[in-house]
Design goal:
It is a single chain. The chain is of the alpha/beta class and 287 residues long. It has helices spanning 13-22, 42-61, 99-112, 138-147, 156-167, 192-202, 218-222, 234-247, 265-286; strands at residues 2-4, 31-32, 40-41, 64-70, 78-85, 93-94, 97-98, 118-124, 128-135, 174-181, 205-211, 228-231, 257-262. It has two domains: 2-70 and 257-286, no CATH class; 78-247, Rossmann fold (3-Layer(aba) Sandwich). It is built from nine helices and 13 strands. The relative contact order is 0.17.
């Protein structure tokens, strides 16, 4: 959309109009033949050229410009890895439904609220694996969550280790792992001491959620600055995700870039052209 950077320049137009009526030069009209037809009032013709020159000059001084807004590649406010237990015991019931179905449903609801964050997914049972890389595409992550199947063991520490490796190159302000499990680690290769050392070094915040289990995972979360939760029902688990969402609220400021395209040169060219014609006709009239 075309606009003017200095629209107040047009306030000069009334001054020119006032001067044209109050400060009229005293000169006789002259017919110019052969220039525009058989005869033309030179005085009116000069006035016409002069006013065209003035009007286009004002347009040039007002600086017509069009602006285009765009956003550069954004950096996520948070990078969040959902680390989900897929052991066989997750197929057991809890208050509100099967643990795995409740966990999947609420995980999908949680990530739908995090549209300005990078979201990734790690599954763990006998072993840990990356189900999706970090992405803004929460719809794709939700679809993968829906298709996750169950295994046998519980490689919780390996799952958290995998999540931390995925976060290592992230440029997000906050790096977070949300690890949900219903039992003790039975299949990890990663020693507990080594994992705790890595957590301290990398500065990743870990939230742990125990579902249908009395086991505390506090030792993993406290050392990272996160929190540990227990959820014995679907409602309790939903409340946990809501708490995490509030604690890690996204406050993303995206810098907008405005590119300006200037067009003052076109009316300026026309203004100069009409003033040159004005002088040409005036000089020829003098001859």
């Amino acid at each position: 959309m075309l606009e003017f950077e200095y629209p107040y320049v047009f306030l000069l137009l009334p001054l020119f109009i006032y001067g044209a009526f109050k400060l009229k030069p005293r000169e006789d009209a002259l017919l110019i033949s052969g220039l525009w037809g058989d005869g033309l009032d030179a005085k009116n013709y000069l006035s016409f050229l002069k006013w065209l020159g003035i009007i286009f000059l004002l347009f040039a001084l007002a600086s017509p410009v069009s602006k285009e807004e765009f956003f550069p590649d954004r950096k996520p406010a948070h990078a969040i890895i959902m680390c989900l237990d897929l052991s066989a015991s997750m197929g057991y019931p809890m208050e509100g439904g099967l643990k795995i179905k409740v966990a999947k449903k609420l995980a999908k609801e949680f990530i739908q609220k995090r549209k300005d964050d990078h979201i990734g997914l790690v599954g763990f049972a006998d072993f840990a694996y990356m189900a999706t890389p970090l992405t803004y595409d929460v719809k794709a992550v939700s679809e993968v969550i829906s298709r996750l199947g169950l295994g046998d063991g519980t490689a919780l520490r390996d799952g958290i280790f995998m999540a931390m490796r995925m976060l290592k190159k992230s440029e997000a302000k906050e790096k977070i792992v949300i690890a949900l499990t219903d039992g003790e680690d039975t299949a990890s290769q990663m020693p507990t001491r080594e994992l705790l050392r890595m957590i301290k070094k990398e500065g990743v915040k870990i939230y742990t959620i125990g579902v249908g289990s009395g086991r505390s995972l506090k030792y993993l979360s406290v050392i990272s600055g996160g929190r540990s939760y227990q959820a014995q029902s679907a409602d309790a688990l939903k409340n946990v995700y809501e708490q995490i969402d509030r604690l890690e609220k996204t406050d993303l400021e995206v810098e907008k870039i405005v590119q300006s395209f200037y067009y003052y040169q076109y009316p300026l060219f026309l203004s100069v052209l009409f003033f040159v014609l004005f002088l040409y006709v005036k000089v020829r009239r003098g001859n």
